[in-house]
Amino acid sequence: MTVRGPDAHEYLQGQVTNDVEALAPGAGCYAALLNPKGRILADMRVLAISPEELWLDLEEVAHETAVRELKLYKIGRKVEIADAADRTVLSVIGPRAWDAIERAGIAEGSPPASEHAWVRSRDEAVVAATDSGFDLLVAPAAVGPLKDALSAAGAEPVSAEAAELVRIERGRPRYGIDMNDENLPGEAGIVARAVSFTKGCYVGQEPVARMFHKGHPNRHLRGLLLSAPVEPGTSVVATGKEVGRVTSAGISPIHGAIALAILRREVEPGAEVTAGSATARVVEPPL
Question: What's the chain's Rg over C-alpha atoms?
C-alpha cells in the first residue's frame, strides 16, 4: 500500500505503534496497526520514500482490514491511501545476499545500514534491508530478469518453505499464522521492534502502555526444540494441561524439528513440554 500526501507522516503516526514521523527518506521501521483494545489488526514494514510518501508492506490476510481502518480516520487530512499493484517483493536471503545483489548488477556501494533502511537500485527499484538479507521492491515484470541475474551471480532459488524455515529459526512471528486480532503486541513478542513509547498517541496505545509499564502478558511467543516433527495446531501441554498450540513448524538443518508457539506465561524458557507425541524444550526466540 501507499500513503501519500502532505499529511502522510503525521497521519500514519497516529494510526500505528512506531515512530513514523521520525523516518527520513531512506529509512523505515516495523509497526503494528491495533484496535482500541490494543489487539493486532495488521503488522507492516513502513518505508519513508519521500516527505510526502510512505510505502506499507503487509500480509495479504490483513490487507482488507488495514485499508478499512486507515481510510476510516483520514477525513479532513491531506492524505491518499492506495493499493500498489505496480510493485512486488523479491527476497534475497543469507549472509552473502548483498554480494549477490552487487554481482548481479542490481545495486552497488554500501548496503542499507540497518533493518528497514533502503537504497535505490540501478533501475530505481527499492532495496530494503531485512533481518536475514534484502528485499527488492520492484515492478512485477522485473522479477523474472532479476531472478536470472541473481542466479547468474551465484544465488540459488529456494522454496517458500525454506524461507519460512529461516523465519521460524529467527523467531519472527507472522501475522495470520503466529498472531492475529486476538493477540496483544506483548503476547506476540513484537513490542521491542514495533512499539515506540516516546511518540504521541495512536489507536490502541493505552492498553499497550499499561501492560508494558504495569503488567505482564498472559502469554508469550516461545520457540520449541522438538524431539520429532509436529504440525501447526498441535496442542502444547505442560504439567497435564494445555498451555498453547504450535503456530509454525519445520525441520531445521541446524536444530532438527522446531516450532513457534504462543504459550501461557508460566511456561518459561528451559521448561520441558509435550506437543502431540513429541517432547520439547521451550526456548526464547530466536532459536
Answer: 20
DSSP track, 87-109: -EEEEEESTTHHHHHHHTTS--S
Taking the C-alpha atoms of residue 233 and residue 267, their distance in angstroms, rounded to an integer, is 18
43 φ, ψ to 5°? -125, 155
Task: For residue 283, count CB atoms less than 10 angstroms from its CB and return exposed for 0-12, middle for 13-18, buried for 19 or more.
Answer: middle
CA distances from 47 to 50, 75, 250, 285 (A): 9, 23, 30, 25
pLDDT digits (tens, 9 = 90+) for 232-251: 999 999 999 999 999 999 99
Helix (H) or strand (E) holding 246: strand 241-252
Q: Order of strands across the sheet with 118-120?
A: 88-93, 133-138, 126-129, 118-120
- The residue count of the chain comes to 287
Q: pTM value?
A: 0.95
Contacts of residue 160, defined as CB under 8 A and 6 or more positions apart, other chains included, come to none
Tens digit of pLDDT for each residue in 153-180? 999 999 999 999 999 999 999 999 999 9
**Cα separation values, 215 from 47, 95, 113, Å:** 32, 38, 35
In angstroms, the CA 70 to CA 23 distance is: 19
Q: Cell 523467531 identifies what position? A: 171
Cell of 128: 530494503
Closest CA to 151 of 112, 98, 101: 101
